[in-house]
Amino acid sequence: MAKEKDNSFTKLVEPHLNSLYSTALRMTHNLHDAEDLVQDTLYKAFRSINQFQQNTNFRAWIFRIMVNTFITAYRKAVKQPMKISYDDMEEFYLYKRLDETVSLQETSKEEFLENIFDDDIKNALESLPYQFRLVVLLCDVEGFSYNEIAEIVDAPLGTIMSRLYRGRKLLQRYLWKYAKERGYIKDEFSQKT
Predict the structure, then answer these.
(1) Is the pLDDT reported for residue 90 higher than 50?
(2) Got the DSSP string for 109-153?
């Protein structure tokens, strides 16, 4: 019986693991925290799999568990003072030193430009307030419908649509400002719009 439960849970979860992890990474901004969040989500989902109703949207169900787990952890973290590990500082130091010594000429021009744009878009997403960022990620990155997002976040559909609209506008404003600063948009064009 337990093995059957394991197999059915694995079949349900497996197609969504990459999506869960990438969303967790965007939510936490940290590799280890993202791994912990996914692990906690899977643990909670496995323990409560009997509450999942067959023939309903498993993806939305497990994402809701992840969002709730993240919010709970975030609230706990806000109440506690920040802790810094010496090991983390050393790891960051080595990464920074390696980054400084790697020559820009080792990568192709296209790869370099792709990385810049990816980082800029990630930075733009990360600059959004949490409630907008979460909805934009779930809709535009993960492809959830408005109704699924409302279920995941446990908010009314109108609120989701409003947050998505405002989040996209903030994102657009940030990217427009970035494009003007970098010279991708000429002043004569920006004055017409």
Answers:
(1) no
(2) HHHHHHHHHHHHHHHHHHHS-HHHHHHHIIIIIT---HHHHHHHH
Both tokens of 35, joined, read 């791994």
Burial profile 110-129: b = 16 or more Cβ within 10 angstroms, e = fewer? eeeeeeeeeeeeeebbeebe
For 2-74, the fitting CATH number among 1.10.1740.10, 3.40.630.30, 3.90.1640.10, 3.30.70.141 is 1.10.1740.10
Q: What is the pLDDT of residue 115?
A: 52
Write down the pLDDT at residue 88: 47
Q: Of 31, 47, 41, which is closest to residue 73 (Cα–Cα)?
A: 41
b (16+ CB within 10 A) / e for 179-188: eeeeeeeeee
The span from the CA of 134 to the CA of 27, in Å, is: 7
- Three-state DSSP at 193 gives coil
Share of the chain above pLDDT 90, in %: 25
Please give the Cα distance from 160 to 33 (Å, whole number).
26
> What is d(CA 134, CA 136) in angstroms, rounded to the nearest whole number?
6
Candidates 117, 118, 193, 128; CA nearest to 164 is 128
